[in-house]
């Protein structure tokens, strides 16, 4: 057992997720004595970022076969006190499935595999003939656009050799440039501990009559609108007029009285927007469902528009080297103001007195007392959290994919946001973030694609999105590795602030 800690604190925080780290930093900043504990050997909790090796270890720890009940810490309750066991944080994850689409050993031979299967196979490089080797003459013919995509044959060993160049997020987040979290980072001076890149393009999926569809770049700025070839001249005028209205809609409340209790989509129709423009506005600017109210839709529009131009041509920021850097940035601030941090320190139970007040926690056989206890939702005892009840069964479906090229080719690497709408076979809207080497997320020539939606079975919920974006066709990215998992909504996973 490690050396004993001081026993009395103003605030004890369990878990190093983003919310807990913000609370710890704020408490230390105002002079509170803070103890911040995490049973894991890494920071971030459900907000962590991992190397590839670290992600594989996380999968092993959180797979259903690996989940085991932790050892019980026996401690007699005294003076009417009761010891209430904390939950195992792994209970929040389910249906964790990792699969490779590559051969294990380094080899030039490769065969494509169905990306919706769990079997392990090999990956074909774009333009490769499965029956014959590419000779020097045919290889020279590939040195055009295909070469720009750095086409090559990968193996599991090739990718694992680059493990430390990956920073793979459990909970990827985009920040509005004028959102509350960015303002907090600036006002608290925590921004000095983190680096960000601006999302360089926003895409949308436009379905065709044949049931297929295309990815189109969404015009975000005024210049983008007038140079876009995806909307007509009349639509450009209508869109610009509507965007100008959204900037100052609060100054004209009389124009909204009729739609105070109506849907946002009805308001858009009243402004004479075409179906094409309604799609762009709802799916890629406001990013709301068709059931959202008029006022909420306008609030989202204004946040998008006011965030434009602050740091780049789109409203969104993404954390360099993974979003796990955000919790750690607040941890650094807490440590500066004498907060104490201990990783790999399990907490077995809460100490509850006869009046149902929490007095502290039991950790490694030691009683740690506090005036206030803050916990990651996954640490909350089941008797308080409701995990297992029908109300808590709602979950979020996540997918992480390592691919060999971008979902939409470009002259230079892009940091991409895409929202697939809730239609055309897609059961839920799916938010998709694609990042490359320029963000410190993966090695050069590879991409990481994150998918997030509401659902209970990630592999099934994301099936349509995967089929649309990836495949064995020469013009689609090939998946080298996939990871599916679900997490209980008590984690408060938030994609965009």
Topology:
Layout: E1 8-14, H1 18-29, E2 34-38, E3 49-50, H2 52-62, E4 82-85, E5 93-100, H3 136-141, H4 145-148, H5 156-160, E6 168-169, E7 175-176, H6 180-187, E8 196-198, E9 201-207, E10 213-217, H7 222-227, H8 233-247, H9 264-270, H10 275-285, H11 294-307, E11 316-319, H12 325-336, E12 340-343, E13 349-352, E14 358-363, E15 366-375, H13 382-385, E16 395-403, E17 416-420, E18 430-435, E19 447-454, H14 458-461, H15 463-469, E20 479-488
Parallel strand pairs: 1-2, 1-15, 2-12, 9-17
Antiparallel strand pairs: 3-6, 4-13, 5-20, 7-11, 8-11, 9-10, 13-14, 14-15, 16-19, 16-20, 17-18, 18-19
Helix pairs in contact: 1-12, 9-11
Give the gist of this structure.
The protein contains 15 helices and 20 strands. With 497 residues, it is α+β, with helices and mostly antiparallel strands. Strand 9 and strand 10 form a beta hairpin.
């Amino acid at each position: 057992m490690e050396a004993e800690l001081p026993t009395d604190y103003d605030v004890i925080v369990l878990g190093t997720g983003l919310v807990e780290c913000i609370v710890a930093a704020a408490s230390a900043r105002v002079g509170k004595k803070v103890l911040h504990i995490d049973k894991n050997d890494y920071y971030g909790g459900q907000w962590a970022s991992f190397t590839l090796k670290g992600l594989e270890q996380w999968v092993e720890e959180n797979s259903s076969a690996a989940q085991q009940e932790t050892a019980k810490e026996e401690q007699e309750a005294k003076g009417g006190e009761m010891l209430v066991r904390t939950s195992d944080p792994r209970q929040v994850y389910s249906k964790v499935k990792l699969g490779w689409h590559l051969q294990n050993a380094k080899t030039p031979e490769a065969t494509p595999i169905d990306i919706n299967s769990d079997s392990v196979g090999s990956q074909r490089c774009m333009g490769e003939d499965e029956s014959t080797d590419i000779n020097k003459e045919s290889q020279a013919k590939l040195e055009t656009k295909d070469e720009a995509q750095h086409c090559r044959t990968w193996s599991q060993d090739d990718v694992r050799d680059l493990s430390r160049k990956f920073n793979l997020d459990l909970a990827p987040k985009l920040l509005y440039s004028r959102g509350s979290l960015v303002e907090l980072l600036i006002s608290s001076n925590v921004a000095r501990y983190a680096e960000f890149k601006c999302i360089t393009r926003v895409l949308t999926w436009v379905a065709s009559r044949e049931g297929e569809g295309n990815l189109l770049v969404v015009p975000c700025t005024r210049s983008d609108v007038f140079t876009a070839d995806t909307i007509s001249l009349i639509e450009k005028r209508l869109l610009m007029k509507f965007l100008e209205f959204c900037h100052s809609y609060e100054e004209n409340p009389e124009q909204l009285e009729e739609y105070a209790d109506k849907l946002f989509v009805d308001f858009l129709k009243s402004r004479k927007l075409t179906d094409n423009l309604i799609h762009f506005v709802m799916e890629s600017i406001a990013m709301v469902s068709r059931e959202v109210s008029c006022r909420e839709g306008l609030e989202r529009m204004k946040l998008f528009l006011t965030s434009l131009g602050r740091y780049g041509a789109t409203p969104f920021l993404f954390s360099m080297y993974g979003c796990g850097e955000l919790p750690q940035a607040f941890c650094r601030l807490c440590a500066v103001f004498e907060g104490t941090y201990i990783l790999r320190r399990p907490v077995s139970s809460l100490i509850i007195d006869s009046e149902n007040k929490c007095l502290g926690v039991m950790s490694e056989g030691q009683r740690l007392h506090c005036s206030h206890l803050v916990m990651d939702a996954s640490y909350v005892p089941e008797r308080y959290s409701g995990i297992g009840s029908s109300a808590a069964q709602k979950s979020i479906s996540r997918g992480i994919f390592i691919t060999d090229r971008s979902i939409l080719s470009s002259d230079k690497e892009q940091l991409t946001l895409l929202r697939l709408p809730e239609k055309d076979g897609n059961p839920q809207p799916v938010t998709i973030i694609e990042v490359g080497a320029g963000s410190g997320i993966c090695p050069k020539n590879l991409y990481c694609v994150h998918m997030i939606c509401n659902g209970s079975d990630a592999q099934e919920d994301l099936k349509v999105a995967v089929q649309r974006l990836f495949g064995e066709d020469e013009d689609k990215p090939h998946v080298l590795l996939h990871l599916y998992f679900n997490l209980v909504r008590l984690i408060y996973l938030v994609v965009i602030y």
